[in-house]
From TrEMBL:
Comp. bias regions, Pro residues: 12-22
Name the record gives this protein: Uncharacterized protein
Biased composition regions of type Low complexity, renumbered to the chain: 1-11
Organism: Actinacidiphila paucisporea
Disordered: region residues: 1-22
């Protein structure tokens, strides 16, 4: 039973919406050169960000979703033609 709208009750807030999902593309093997503790959850990880931080990909994606507009973690450049080729 809901009490919203009854005298003497506090109106309830609608549920907070979850931040939109963020998906990083870390296809370069360089990301698998970690071997320390994740800077966000402090658990062991073998992944490394572009800035050299040991971090789980999912932790980085969650951080980005919670911090829109920040670029602490970024995706690799899209695969495709290499520079200098015709």
């Amino acid at each position: 039973m809901t009490t919203a709208g009854l005298p003497g009750t506090t109106p309830t807030r609608p549920p907070a919406t979850a931040p939109p999902p963020v998906s990083l593309d870390w296809h370069d093997g360089w990301h698998f050169t970690g071997g320390g503790r994740c800077v966000l959850c402090n658990r062991h990880t073998v992944l490394r960000s572009h800035a050299g931080e040991d971090v789980h990909k999912v932790c980085a994606e969650r951080w980005l979703a919670r911090n829109p507009g920040k670029d602490r973690f970024v995706s690799d450049l899209p695969r495709g033609r290499r520079r200098g080729t015709a």
